[in-house]
Amino acid sequence: MKKRLILLAFLGYSAVAGASGSWLSLEAWDRPLDGDAVTAFDVLRAAVDRLDRDEALRLAIRYPGGEAGLFRAHGLRQWLIALGISAERLRLTPGAARDDRLELVLEAAAP
Asked: What is the CATH number of domain 2-9+23-108?
């Protein structure tokens, strides 16, 4: 797992956006995925890099309400755990601003 995080640190990508966060379209996410496909998402590489560099951050995953949205958010959470992010640093929250994406928001971890 650590090797993958180190590899991600050497790849070029932009930083995760500020308070507005970043997002994954459900169109892109709703397909069979393997580790290579998941790490190809720039927004996920950036989020993993930021979480790896700053222990004071956690990632909120905002998903469209309902069972289907929760299922997608859990899938993303499991991939992030497989990439080495501690489950305690991930939070699932219903109520994404739009129903066609998963929103990723880096926030300060609770004390």
From this structure: 3.30.1330.60
CA-wise closest residue to 38 among 28, 50, 49: 28
The residues spanned by each domain of the chain are 2-9+23-108
Amino acid in position 52: D
Q: Is pTM, for the whole model, over 0.85?
A: no
- Percent of all residues in the chain with a pLDDT value above 90, rounded to a whole number: 76
- The Cα 8–Cα 6 span in angstroms is 5
Residue 62 one-letter amino acid: R
* Structure token pair of residue 74: 């859990």
Residues 6+ apart with CB under 8 A from 21: 60, 62, 103, 104, 105, 106
Confidence band of 6 (pLDDT split at 50, 70, 90): very low
